[in-house]
Prior knowledge:
Blueprint: E1 2-15, H1 32-44, E2 51-52, E3 61-73, H2 77-87, E4 92-99, E5 112-120, E6 134-135, H3 142-149, E7 154-157, E8 172-183, E9 186-193, H4 200-212, H5 221-227, E10 242-248
Parallel strand pairs: 3-10, 5-6
Antiparallel strand pairs: 1-3, 1-4, 2-3, 5-9, 5-10, 7-8, 8-9
Amino acid sequence: xxxxxxxxxxxxxxxxxxxxxxxxxxxxxxxxxxxxxxxxxxxxxxxxxxxxxxxxxxxxxxxxxxxxxxxxxxxxxxxxxxxxxxxxxxxxxxxxxxxxxxxxxxxxxxxxxxxxxxxxxxxxxxxxxxxxxxxxxxxxxxxxxxxxxxxxxxxxxxxxxxxxxxxxxxxxxxxxxxxxxxxxxxxxxxxxxxxxxxxxxxxxxxxxxxxxxxxxxxxxxxxxxxxxxxxxxxxxxxxxxxxxxxxxxxxxxxxxxxxxxxxxxxxxxxxx
Length: 272
């Protein structure tokens, strides 16, 4: 029951984005935000707005999305996790819940984010991973992709890798890490940065895939970046191969432990 004391709770959320129309609430559409807010309303008996570290698009998956909400209920953080998981559908799960240190904001206090993109490189498609990977039947040249990836690390203008009209004040972003490596029959592209532009990761992956197929040279990347022209970059990779892996907050919010997220050495067919 409400106790008159305003509290801020933090959630770590895992979801399969296949049946969601993205994170953010949209009229008439099933979204991750709307599902969680509906469940919280049942638990707390009050209207609650949940704020995430950032939105993900339709089809994109979340391994450890972070979000916060304010409530006047006196439920323990653990009970929020248990209660929400009993109310939510099977394609969204609360990994952990915790009372926030004041002040905390899931969006504005984020220090870095890591995304992962998975590309299946075997000849035949996967029935089990069809909504989790981008299938390339002819394989990709890993060394060429790795060479091209090196040109993106550092502070760069990524105007060529986002829509022309995005509403951002600047298209300059600092990329801390961009790695391309094999995991079984998949190629994974992992990228860490302070922030991203819309469709930036998927467009980088699409461009790297063209390099891997021999359609572009690895050393053409500086020219594409310099052009600041979306037409100079490659295709946008499909949404269903993309995962929000982690959001970092430094000392403000240590990550949860033992959440079972997928790592390279733990890869197995059919898991996301």
